[in-house]
Amino acid sequence: MEYRDKLVLAPMVRVGMQPMRLLAASYGADIVYSEELVAQRVIASTRVVNEELQSIDFLDRGGEHGRVMFRTTAEERPRLVFQLGAADAVLALQAAQVVAGDVAEVGLNMGCPKAFSLQGGMGAALLRKPEIAEDIMKTLHRNLNIPVSCKIRLLDTDQDTVELARRLAACGINALAVHGRTTQQRPRDPAHWDPIRLVVDALAPDGVPVVANGDVFTWEDAQRVKRETGCAAAMIARAAMWNASVFRPQGERFLPLDEVQREFVRLALKWENALPNTKYCLK
Fold first, then answer.
1. For 127-161, what is each residue's pLDDT tens digit?
2. Phi and psi, residue 150, nearest 5°
3. Which positions are catalytic?
4. Of 87, 86, 174, 97, nearest to 143 (Cα)?
5. pLDDT(254) > 80
6. Which of 77, 122, 234, 253 has its CA 20 to 30 A from that of 11?
7. In contact, 39 and 84? CB cutoff 8 Å
8. Do 49 and 69 meet the contact criterion of CB atoms below 8 Å apart?
9. Do 101 and 94 touch, CB atoms closer than 8 A?
């Protein structure tokens, strides 16, 4: 998967389902992330070819009639990154092998600050346990036939952030996404782009592309973060959740929200997205 000069839909829990990924791609997103799915849940799922929808479904509880955990299509595969939540290399590999044939890349979540992830040793907890993160990334890189990547947050100092980035780059990752906030900071706090520039410079000799995330709200913001940090790609999160037409190229105006919502509903109905999730995304 190539990241240079790309716009990326960020991984977002309960948002990065198939309709949102397809919607973002239709407006211009080059790469789309799934929501984070935890390794144990993925391992327990069952892969089913849905002949009626022409989709690939991964069902919860291992049963033929289980709830859809993850749905995709062959058409979506070239731009799809499956975001994995894991705190153990063996489980991470087992989970990645379940989906590897249907996605373009597997990305390890090292940035989620939610209590569920932290208590399970996943997400941002891995920022403080780089040896575990390294073990996971090396294991995935050695054993999968598709690229692997990871997404981190800033550490307390620029030096620590750069050092972690270098350690991860040495694991054979295809890309590193960096959210310009620390684990303690929240969306209301301004994102810091300067440390991302340091990571870009540090990884340049290894040729590892960096994806910048944080306070990218418009197409113009995406161009600005590329100029200011030298990053390969810009990742958009909240702005895409508010209005997915943010991905329209060359700074075209946002489409009216009601038009975007109608298209989202059309895709949700076409792909039989779970009604509670559709309603959540429309809020």
1. 999 999 999 999 999 999 999 999 999 999 999 99
2. -150, 160
3. 112
4. 97
5. yes
6. 253
7. yes
8. no
9. no
